[in-house]
Write a structure and sequence with these properties.
The protein is of the alpha/beta class and 310 residues long. The chain contains twelve helices and ten strands. An eight-stranded parallel beta sheet has the order 1-10-9-8-5-4-3-2. The chain has a two-stranded antiparallel ribbon with strand order 6-7. Strand 3, helix 4 and strand 4 form a beta-alpha-beta unit.
């Protein structure tokens, strides 16, 4: 395998308003969601997954997706790239009507998880994704491959299953592809093994990685991936998140932890970590959200009380 020098810059896409909020059982009022989003928009991020156009019966927290997106478009359109998760055609129709910049269509590499997540086979989801690709117009389409490393029901996932989804995404005309460690059980050796196969197949294509921190290895996995030339990552402020349909999945890699580590290694992110910490403190103190972040627990994190989200 060919290892790359560490990048000078990495892209960190903020996913807290979608992946971070979706597992919070108590409904977060729309105005509170918008206030947090506004706070995060001021941290220097360039892309944000704002919401998810899913059935409110499946994920009640996302019932206000259209209202949240309307506020984002009004304030941040043209300044920050917006992303909305979609699981099917109906979700795509809602996302397209909202004015979002990117739709993020999720398909699991694992048959078992795809059934739990969407009540469809992988093949049925691939066919639905192809229909969405045909109707996207000027809106860009990202395909996220969930359970790209392991499935909560079936265990380790073979790289060939990941490649199957990626191949179909490219054939359909997807503009971007993300691979997700949905349950956060991958380790650097496992990540390196799978991603080496992906690199052999697809060369230096700029994939994004979505890393969960169930076993505390998200940052180690990020370093392993950077050694293979990966330089685009999802993260959630405060380390919030977890898939409701993946038993045992913990939160995402915390944005502030990822930024802190990258910049200590001399890798630029363009994100102000103190501003992120300020938002995180407000999420915890004003809105009662449970924070899962190493940096937020330090003296620096506790003292980052500039205030935001008023």
């Amino acid at each position: 395998m060919n290892f790359h020098p560490l990048p000078e810059w990495v892209e960190i896409m903020e996913v807290c308003p979608r992946d971070g909020f979706q597992s919070v059982k108590e409904f977060i009022p729309t105005e509170h969601k918008v206030a947090i989003i506004d706070g995060l928009a001021g941290t220097g991020i360039s892309s944000m997954e704002v919401t998810s156009f899913v059935s409110p019966k499946a994920i009640p927290q996302m019932a206000d997706a259209a209202d949240v997106m309307a506020e984002f478009v009004r304030k941040w359109k043209g300044k920050i790239t917006s992303i909305a998760l979609i699981p099917n055609l109906r979700g795509a129709e809602g996302a397209l009507a909202s004015g979002v910049d990117w739709m993020n269509f999720v398909i699991s590499a694992s048959e078992d998880h795809n059934q739990a997540n969407t009540r469809r086979s992988v093949e049925e989801s691939l066919a639905e994704m192809e229909k969405v690709a045909g109707m996207k117009g000027s809106t860009k389409l990202r395909v996220s491959v969930a359970t790209a490393f392991a499935c909560p029901f079936a265990g380790p996932v073979a790289p060939e299953k990941v490649i199957r989804v990626i191949d179909r995404a490219f054939e359909a005309g997807a503009d971007g592809v993300t691979m997700a460690d949905t349950i956060g059980t991958a380790d650097p050796k496992y990540v390196t093994s799978t991603l080496s196969v992906i690199r052999e197949k697809f060369g230096d294509y700029p994939f994004t990685l979505h890393l969960h921190d169930t076993y505390g290895m998200a940052l180690a996995n990020m370093v392993a991936a950077m050694g293979l030339g990966f330089a685009s990552f999802d993260a959630a402020a405060g380390g919030l998140g977890g898939c409701p349909f993946a038993p045992g999945a913990a939160g995402n890699a915390a944005t502030e932890d990822m930024v802190n580590m990258a910049e200590r290694m001399g890798i630029a992110t363009g994100i102000d970590v103190l501003k992120v910490l300020s938002v995180v403190r407000t999420m915890e103190s004003a809105y009662g959200l449970r924070i899962n972040s190493h940096l937020a627990a330090t003296k620096l994190g506790r003292e980052s009380d500039e205030g935001c989200c008023s």
